[in-house]
Automatic annotation (TrEMBL):
Domain DUF1468: 8-144
InterPro entries, A to Z: DUF1468
Residues annotated as transmembrane: 7-27, 39-58, 70-89, 118-140
Keywords associated with the record: Membrane, Transmembrane, Transmembrane helix
Transmembrane helix among keywords: yes
Name of the protein described by the UniProt record: Tripartite tricarboxylate transporter TctB family protein
Keyword Membrane assigned: yes
Signal peptide (from-to): none
Length: 151
């Protein structure tokens, strides 16, 4: 990206982050003794996105971007399709199974695809999904459907 493109995308991320934060304020507070409420995570993501967008707009890069070859473009398309399928399956199956499969798929796209690598990816994904599910459900009290071993 050029400096001008960085500024344009930075301003876009700033606007998107502020919009997400403003939208998160419209969620009804639950008032359940310390519950963070449904607007906490979208609000936090919005603030972080706005901060990073501001930094990108203020201090753009000065290097010209390299052209994307066909293989990397296909990898990006497959990744975005995986994110869309993950979101769809998350709504149907809850948190754990879609997250587990999504993590293995992304690690396979970015790393090796040998049986040993896939076994390591499966183990890491299971640990990560279990840990994140436990934190969200029991530490942050986020009501999540389909968390392994914890409901």
């Amino acid at each position: 990206m050029t400096g001008q493109t960085d500024r344009i995308f930075g301003i876009g991320f700033l606007v998107m982050g502020l919009g997400l934060f403003a939208y998160s304020l419209s969620f009804r507070e639950t008032d359940l003794m310390g519950d963070l409420g449904p607007g906490f995570l979208p609000g936090l993501v919005g603030v972080i996105l706005a901060i990073l967008g501001t930094l990108q707009a203020i201090r753009p890069g000065n290097k010209q971007a390299e052209p994307i070859d066909r293989q990397r473009f296909i990898l990006a398309v497959v990744f975005f399709l995986a994110v869309a399928v993950y979101a769809l399956f998350f709504a149907w199956f809850g948190f754990s199974w879609p997250s587990f499969v999504f993590l293995i798929a992304v690690m396979s796209l970015l790393g090796g695809r040998s049986p040993r690598s896939l076994a390591i990816y499966a183990l890491l994904s299971a640990v990560f999904v279990g840990l994140i599910g436990w934190v969200l459900l029991h530490v942050l009290s986020v009501p999540l459907r389909g968390v392994w071993f914890l409901n």
